[in-house]
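Thread: "does anyone have the structure for this chain?"

Original post by V.I.:
We have the sequence but no experimental structure in hand. Need at least a predicted one for the grant figures.
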Amino acid sequence: MEITIEAWRQATGETAGAFATYRVTGVTPEMSLLEVLDLLNEQLVAAGEPAIAFDSDCREGICGACGVTVDGRPHGPVPNTPSCMQHVNQLPDPTRLRLEPLRANAFPVVCDLAVDRAALDRVIEAGGYVDVKTGQATDADAMLIPHEVAENALDFAGCIGCGACVAACPNGAAHLFAGAKLLHLDRLSYGRQERGLRARAITGQLDHDFGPCSTFGECAQVCPADIDLAAVAAVNREAVRAAFRRKPD
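Reply from O.Q.:
Generated one for you, C-alpha cells below.
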C-alpha cells in the first residue's frame, strides 16, 4: 500500500516552514500514524534526506508525548484517541494524509512536527500540586474518602497533558487541562486546604499563556482521556470562589 503524505517541514522555530510531499511505500492497514512516520523516516534516511522530527514515547496512549495534526484535526480523525493509537484502516482516505504540528500560540514549533508544550508545565508548576506533612506514614484508613469521590477524582486525574485540547480550541485555551487539575486535586481531602491558592495560581498562569475558552467544546472531542466539560466550567467557578473567600486558602 502507498500513501502520499504532505508533512510540515520547519528546521527550527526561527525559520519559515512549508509542506513537503512524500510517497511512502510498504504501508499496511494495521499501522499506526506514528509507524507510518517511522517508515517514511527510514526511507528518507536511506535516500540521504533529513528525517521528520515528531514527538512520541510510550505509543500506548498513556504518556501524552505524541501529538500531530492530521488533516486539520489534532491527533487524527478518530475522536478521543491519541496520535499513536490512530491507525491507517481508520482513516477516511488512507491514501493521502496532511500532517502538521499541534497549532497553538502557546506551542511554538521546535522542528517539523515537534512543538514546545512547556506552557502546560508552567500551569502545573503554578498550582498543580499539594502540600503534605512529612514524617511517619499514617494509616491507610486514617483519611476516609468515599468511593464515588475517589473515582471522580481519578477520572479528572486521567488527563495525560497531550495538549490536543489547546490545539483544537480556536482561541488556544487550556481550560480542559487546567480544570482537570483543579478538580482532581480539590476532590481529595489533602488537596482541599490550598484550594483557593491553587485556583488563583493556575488561572493566573492560564491568562498569561493561553487564550479564553471558546465555549464550543472542541477540546472534549479530541481529548484521549475523555475529560468531561465539567473541567472547563470548574476554571471560572474556582476562580470566582477564590476571589470571594475572606481567608486565603
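V.I.: this helps a lot. The longest helix spans residues 195-209.
O.Q.: and The chain has two domains: 2-111, 118-244.
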